[in-house]
C-alpha cells in the first residue's frame, strides 16, 4: 500500500513539475539573420530550383515562414546541409501587386526562412519581368 | 440525487457546528465495523470538453486555414486524457469526506498559411495548444452498497480550485495563458470489489468551471486579460475513467 501511495505521489508530482516549465516561450526570442544577397527570380519560372549559401555551415531542418504571395513553393519544409538552403518554387506573376505584363520591371519583396537550429533568416527576393 | 445532496449538506453542517460530544449520535446510528477508515482511489481515462468550438473554428478559417483543418484541430483539442486521485475518510459506511485531485490534458496542432490581407505576403507556420487543467478540492462521497458484497454505486461531489495552463503557438509566436477559478465536479461510480480491500471502478463525472480572467505571458511581457461575461473560458468537460480503489484498513 505504501508503495502505491508513493508511486501515485510521484505521478502527481511529476505532472505538476512538467506543467511548470516555461521554456517553450524562448521560441519568441529567436535570432534574426539578414542576408545581404538578393535572390533573383523571373516571372516565367515554373517548378524552378535554386540554392542559397548561408554564411554559417549548418545542418538543420527549415520551414519557409514568410513569402511574397507571387512566390509559391513545392514544399514548405526542407533540410539545410552544410549551409546550403535548397528552394523549389514557381512564380505566380498574376498575384503581383500592380502587375503589368507590358512593362519591363523588377518587383521586390522579402522572404523569411525559419531554421530550427539557427533562427530566422531574412532575404530579399527580386522578381524580374524581362518580356514586355 | 436530492437525498444525496440533502445528506451531504446535513453532514457538512454537522461537521462545522457540532462539538465532539455531538458526534456520538452519528456513531451510534451508523458506525458498523467498516466505518472510520481511509479510502484511496486512482482513476484514469478520457475527457471531453463541453464548450462549443464553432466560433474558434470560424476564426481559424478566416485566418487562412481550411475548414477541414480547423474542424480536425478543435476535435482533437476537445478530447483529452484525464485522471484523478481521491483520498477519503469514511465517516459511516455510506458517507465519506476527503480530498480530490484531478487533472486534464489535451493537445492539438496543425500547420497552415495565414493571410494578413495586406496583398503582399503570406505566412506559414504551426498552430498548437497544450492545455492542462488541475483541480484541487474537497470531496463528499456517498456510497450505496446495493445490498451486495461485490458491487457498489457511489456518488461524489467535489468543489475547489481549478488552475488552467495553455501553452499556445500561433505561427512562430508563443504564449502562455494561465488562470484559476472555482470549480466543481460531480460524478457517479460503479465499483466492483475484487477483495474487501481492493476494487475496480468505472466513473462518469462532469467537471465544471469557467474563467473570467486570464494572464497572458510571452516570455517578456505579462498582461491580465479580462475576458468579460460573454467570452469566459469554459473548462467544463465530461470525464470517463476506470480506476482502482483501496481500503487499507479493512
Summary tags:
heterodimer, A: 132 residues, mainly beta, Immunoglobulin-like, five-stranded mixed β-sheet, three-stranded antiparallel β-sheet, 1 helix, B: 250 residues, alpha+beta, Porin, elongated
Fold and architecture overview:
- The complex is a heterodimer of chains A (132) and B (250).
- Chain A is elongated, with a radius of gyration of 22 Å.
- The termini of chain A are far apart.
- Chain A has a single domain, classed as Immunoglobulin-like, CATH 2.60.40.
- Chain A has one helix spanning 2-18; strands at residues 32-42, 48-53, 60-68, 71-73, 77-80, 84-91, 105-115, 119-129.
- With 132 residues, chain A is mainly β.
- Chain B is built from four helices and eleven strands, in the order ααβααββββββββββ.
- In chain B, strand 4 (121-144) and strand 5 (151-170) form a beta hairpin.
- Residues 1-33 of chain B have low confidence and may be disordered.
- Chain B is elongated and about 75 Å long.
- Chain B has a single domain (2-246), classed as Porin (Beta Barrel), CATH 2.40.160.70.
- The A-B interface holds A 1, 4-5, 8, 12, 15-16, 19, 22, 24-30, 63-69, 76, 97, 109, 114, 120 and B 40, 42, 85, 101, 103, 111, 119-125, 132, 134, 165, 167, 169, 171-176, 217-220, 246, 248.
Amino acid at each position: 500500500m505504501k508503495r502505491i501511495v508513493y508511486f501515485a505521489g510521484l505521478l502527481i508530482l511529476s505532472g505538476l513539475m512538467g506543467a511548470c516549465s516555461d521554456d517553450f516561450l524562448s521560441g519568441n526570442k529567436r535570432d534574426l539573420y539578414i542576408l545581404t544577397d538578393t535572390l533573383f527570380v523571373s516571372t516565367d519560372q515554373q517548378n524552378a530550383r535554386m540554392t542559397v549559401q548561408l554564411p554559417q555551415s549548418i545542418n538543420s531542418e527549415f520551414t519557409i515562414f514568410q513569402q511574397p504571395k507571387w512566390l509559391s513553393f513545392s514544399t514548405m519544409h526542407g533540410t539545410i546541409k552544410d549551409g546550403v538552403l535548397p528552394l523549389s518554387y514557381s512564380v505566380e506573376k498574376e498575384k503581383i501587386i500592380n502587375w503589368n505584363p507590358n512593362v519591363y520591371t523588377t518587383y521586390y519583396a522579402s522572404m523569411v526562412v525559419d531554421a530550427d537550429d539557427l533562427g530566422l533568416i531574412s532575404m530579399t527576393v527580386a522578381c524580374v519581368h524581362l518580356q514586355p | 440525487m436530492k437525498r444525496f445532496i440533502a445528506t451531504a449538506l446535513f453532514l457538512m453542517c454537522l461537521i462545522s457546528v457540532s462539538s465532539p460530544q455531538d458526534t456520538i449520535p452519528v456513531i451510534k446510528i451508523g458506525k458498523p465495523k467498516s466505518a472510520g477508515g481511509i479510502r484511496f482511489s486512482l482513476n484514469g481515462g478520457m475527457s471531453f470538453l463541453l464548450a462549443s468550438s464553432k466560433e474558434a473554428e470560424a476564426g481559424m478559417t478566416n485566418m487562412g486555414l481550411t475548414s477541414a483543418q480547423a474542424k480536425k484541430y478543435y476535435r482533437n483539442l476537445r478530447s483529452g486524457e484525464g485522471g484523478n486521485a481521491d483520498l477519503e475518510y469514511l465517516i459511516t459506511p455510506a458517507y465519506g469526506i476527503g480530498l480530490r485531485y484531478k487533472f486534464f490534458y489535451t493537445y492539438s496542432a496543425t500547420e497552415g498559411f495565414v493571410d494578413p490581407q495586406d496583398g503582399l505576403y503570406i505566412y506559414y507556420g504551426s498552430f498548437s495548444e497544450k492545455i492542462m487543467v488541475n483541480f484541487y478540492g474537497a470531496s463528499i462521497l456517498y456510497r450505496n452498497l446495493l445490498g451486495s458484497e461485490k458491487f457498489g454505486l457511489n456518488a461524489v461531489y467535489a468543489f475547489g480550485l481549478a488552475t488552467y495552463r495553455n501553452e499556445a503557438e500561433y505561427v512562430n509566436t508563443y504564449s502562455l495563458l494561465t488562470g484559476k477559478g472555482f470549480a466543481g465536479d460531480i460524478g457517479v461510480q460503479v465499483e466492483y470489489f475484487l477483495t474487501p480491500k481492493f476494487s475496480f471502478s468505472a466513473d462518469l463525472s462532469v467537471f465544471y468551471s469557467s474563467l473570467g480572467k486570464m494572464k497572458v505571458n510571452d516570455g517578456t511581457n505579462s498582461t491580465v486579460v479580462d475576458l468579460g461575461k460573454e467570452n469566459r473560458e469554459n473548462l467544463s468537460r465530461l470525464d470517463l475513467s476506470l480506476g482502482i480503489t483501496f481500503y487499507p484498513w479493512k
